[in-house]
Automatic annotation (TrEMBL):
InterPro entries, A to Z: YibE_F
Keywords: Membrane, Transmembrane, Transmembrane helix
TM annotation in the entry: 6-22, 122-139, 145-165, 172-192, 198-218, 296-320, 340-368
One protein family per Pfam: YibE_F
Full protein name: Uncharacterized membrane protein
Claim: Ion transport is one of the keywords in the record: no
The organism of origin for this protein: Desulfovibrio gilichinskyi
């Protein structure tokens, strides 16, 4: 019975978290009488569009049939405004499934506009595939990991981001959020144990050191935060008082936190297994083993960060090569400097997590082990 208790409890917690995320009425927009609904395009009018190279500007009129909501089955004509930004604009064709914002009064659609392609179904399919693979491979641990995944999303969406928008200090808010996330994620996987305590302390110590480096070198590199995606759009949407520099610093630490937890847990679990197999091992030898494991893990993890950030800015790197930009100009460009800063600070934080975790694990694990050995010898 006990074997099935934990999966059932965790499943109920996941369902509860998902239910909390669905607190808004389905389909409702922030404006009264406005719904965001799924629709299928039946006809498009491109006569008002103007071609400008690879981009288009102007207005596309889309005729569509609503697939849900109070006016389900009724035809609407939505406006699709293109502003010449291919990364944001979308051009629709008959047969496309769209998300449309529709004003509905007494069951009759008054006016509408297109929002985006409707991608939610396939995103759900991909998420279900992820869940199935995770549960098939990791089983109960996978279920716990799924709970930490949903809980982390909830904390970021309902606590961290609203706190930033409210004007709270981004640095302190990040410290509180990461502490909460670290405890939840590691506890979800490892339960309440010495392993959890060690991995949590190692992660937080490494991230606090990375935060110190972020504040120091961010000031030296004169990075003001406007390099973050959508930063200018956020300011122009009415949030003029936000401290984008500290928000950028927060994003740097937040981005490295997941890998830091991974390293801390790898080292702690490895040292705990070593102690189980070799209960007579000394503290110095155990710490040395943990540091060796940390060297192997950080050797690949830092490169993983580099590849992840490089992949996100692949087209920018290609542009530099195309334009024949000098290496000096590339290094001093604000956007490149910001990504170098993000990669190196995150990597330093990861490297520091390893030895700190090994030292903490040696003190806690061997401290407990030596007490047991001393007690056993006294009893004998």
């Amino acid at each position: 019975m006990k074997r099935f208790a934990t999966p059932v409890i965790v499943t109920m917690m996941i369902i509860g978290m998902v239910a909390l995320l669905q607190h808004e009425e389905a389909g409702r927009d922030t404006q009264p009488d406005v719904y965001e609904l799924r629709a299928v395009a039946t006809k498009v009018d491109d006569s008002s569009l103007i071609n400008m190279g690879t981009a288009r500007i102007g207005t596309q009129h889309v005729t569509a049939i609503l697939m849900e909501g109070p006016a389900k089955g009724k035809e609407v004509v939505g406006v699709n405004q293109l502003v010449g930004q291919p990364d944001m604009d979308e051009i629709y064709s008959p047969g496309d499934t769209l998300l449309m914002a529709v004003r509905i009064h007494n069951g009759i659609p008054a006016d509408s506009r297109t929002v985006n392609q409707y991608r939610q179904d396939w995103e759900l399919v991909l998420f279900i595939l992820f869940v199935l693979i995770l549960l098939i491979y990791a089983r109960t641990i996978g279920l716990k990991a799924l709970f930490s995944f949903v809980a982390s999303f909830y904390i970021l969406w309902q606590f961290f981001i609203p706190g930033l928008l409210a004007g709270n200090n981004p640095i302190w808010l990040t410290v509180i959020t990461l502490t909460l996330l670290t405890v939840i994620i590691i506890t979800s996987v490892a339960g309440f144990s010495k392993v959890t305590l060690i991995a949590t302390l190692g992660t937080l110590c490494g991230l606090l050191l990375a935060l110190g480096l972020t504040l120091f070198f961010g000031e030296k590199l004169r990075l003001e935060g406007m390099t973050s995606p959508f930063a200018a759009m956020l300011i122009f949407s009415g949030h003029y008082t936000l401290d984008l520099r500290d928000i950028f610093y927060s994003s740097v630490i937040l981005g490295a936190s997941g890998a830091a937890m991974d390293i801390a847990m790898d080292i702690t679990a490895s040292m705990n297994e070593i102690l189980k197999k070799r209960p007579d091992i000394g503290r110095k030898e155990l710490i040395h083993s943990g540091i060796n494991v940390g060297r192997m893990v950080t050797g690949t993890m830092t490169t993983t960060l580099l590849l992840a950030y490089s992949g996100g800015y692949l087209t920018m790197l290609m542009l530099f090569v195309t334009k024949g930009s000098t290496f000096t100009r590339m290094l001093n460009l604000k956007l490149v400097a910001a990504e170098i800063f993000r990669t190196l600070v995150g990597s330093v934080g990861l490297v520091m997590v390893a030895p700190i975790t090994a030292l903490i694990a040696g003190v806690i694990l061997c401290g407990v082990s030596e007490k047991k050995k001393t007690h056993g010898q006294t009893a004998a």
